[in-house]
Fold each of these.
Amino acid sequence: MNELNLNNLTNDFPLLNKLMALEEVVWFNPNVTTLDQGLPYVGLDDKDIHDASLRLQRFAPYLAKAFPETQLSNGIIESNLVDIPTMKTALEAYYQLPIKGRLMMKKDSHLPISGSIKARGGIYEVLTHAEKLAFEAGLLSESDDYSKLLEPEFREFFKQYSIAVGSTGNLGMSIGIMSAKLGFTVSVHMSADARAWKKNKLREHGVNVVEYEQDYGVAVEQGRKEAEQDPSCFFIDDENSKTLFLGYSVAGDRLKQQFEQQQIVVDKAHPLFVYLPCGVGGGPGGVAFGLKMAFGDHVHCLFAEPTHSPCMLLGVHTGLHDEIAVQDLGIDNLTAADGLAVGRASGFVGRAMERLLDGYYTLTDERMYQLLGQLNQAEAIKLEPSALAGMPGPIHVEHNTEYMTRLGIDDSTLSNSTHLVWATGGGMVPEQEMAMYLAKSSI
């Protein structure tokens, strides 16, 4: 982007000056609409989510046998919903501000198989592709017991095909582990910021890990190029895949069921605020879509990004989406939050969801590490740095008078609200690595 264009942009969007200065910022989207007004832009609806849910139910008998850690949930990949009251107290003390609503956490950080939110979308897309191939070959039908996929003939069949993906780490983990288990030849193209332990774990599962010295964008581009040269290779596109998006969206109805079990009400008088760490946007975008379909206009979703990688905020705020990258502003896209180290946001997610997302904010790596230590001390929950991005959200929401007024929320309504921090990864971090994270938290 030339200097003239950048000058025009910063004149039109003064917030970009703070982004370039790597300051923590909060932006509440003035163009947010009702679900009815925003839904047509997504191009998907509740029928698509229902189909995804049914597909996961069909695969459940297979998953329960292939991955013993899913037996307790009968092969359904789902995470716990927990209160974090001591962390709420710690946040109030740090910011010297009260949080009137209830503070909870969704522990996608501890999802089975791959230990992150990517176990939703990544595994779902691999299963969708496997089902399609098996259907076309006449090896499988919807009425079958899918545990037959464990039989040797299926591994031999899938061995003819390959799967490729570009990843900063967690998506590669979910796709690599699932693909290899089914019998696919799988290559994960990983950017420089991917953690060494994630690469090692994939190799232990027989996955071909291709490493790059550049960032996520290059890994995706190279993975796509390699797949194009092989007609038997299926490339999973984190930036544009509606299948991945739908895999994540199933979380909405499942959370609704968990709320009902815990007698948590979500309505006009009991609003729900959800804080989602955002990298390229597929995971948080899909979850937010599912939440909107489950709770309607009573749920308010916000994306959280590192100060060094604010790609979704940049894309939506300027309206340029994937036509602009943080590097165009001179921002380096280097962050300890490896899963969020993305310079250019998904154009599909940005355009589909921009009217349904209430806001965006950024935070520094130092703050993520600090929160990591605070959470471990307060609740004995260990997460990777990127998974802490959602934690300051309740402070930003409750203490923005203009935003609260726009929503028509007063103090009494706030007291009835639920704040849900979506923890996205950390359940499989090796002890030695976690000790290093905690050492950086300076608690």
Amino acid sequence: MPFRNLSERERLALSLLALLLGLVLTWTLLWQPQRAALQDAERQYRDELQLAADLQRMPATSGGQHGTTINSGDLPGLLARTSAEANLNLERLDNEQQGRVNLGLSGSLDDLLAWLQQLGEQGVEVISANLEVNPMAHVRARLVLEVR
């Protein structure tokens, strides 16, 4: 039955229904996903701010002193703080067992090598390393470290 053959009242009802359907579709397909993405971004930003504040509150070690060792319980905190100081992006940090940590990070190759040398001076040993280096000397590393 064509739209023109309907009564004025039925055409008005169908028009209002189409308008309502258009508004619901606009809300569902356009507005709602954008709002959810904004909320996710705000939550991630707050998490990053909290992480930065936590890193700032961590106690400083006597970095740079040769022969200084740490205990195994302090290893995750040391890795988080010193990787940030070395301009490395810590992507993952998992405690495997007492004194052993599995981590993923990225940054410049020079920064990573200097950081690993600094850790070695503090008694941290690299158990395994998987490095992916691009032509611009940017590295993605997966490391297993432990206290000697």
